[in-house]
Amino acid sequence: MAAELINIQVCYASDAVQFLRALQVPAGTTIEQALALSGVQQAVPGLDLSALQAGIYAKKKPLDTVLREHDRIELYRPLIADPKHARRRRKAAVAD
């Protein structure tokens, strides 16, 4: 009997590139395995997966998380600016 397949998506976005790939993977596949199967590293030159965090639908998850049907794996880049400082600067600019 063939292994059950589940449908997932892998996505990554930066200011220069957008990557979205739908995949069918065997049930029991982890985030780490799905990233390897997706080809995101080959499609996005210079992408260092070890420097990024991953999550499913905006919730950070460890790479050993087992995927479920219709999960969307998202790769998160480090923040360039602290959101709290950005809000303070905008508020100060409006007050002046």
Automatic annotation (TrEMBL):
It holds the Pfam family Ub-RnfH. InterPro entries: Mopterin_synth/thiamin_S_b, RnfH, RnfH_sf. SUPFAM superfamilies: MoaD/ThiS. It comes from the Bacteria. Belongs to the UPF0125 (RnfH) family. This is UPF0125 protein E4L98_00430. It comes from Duganella callida. The lineage of its organism: Bacteria, Pseudomonadati, Pseudomonadota, Betaproteobacteria, Burkholderiales.
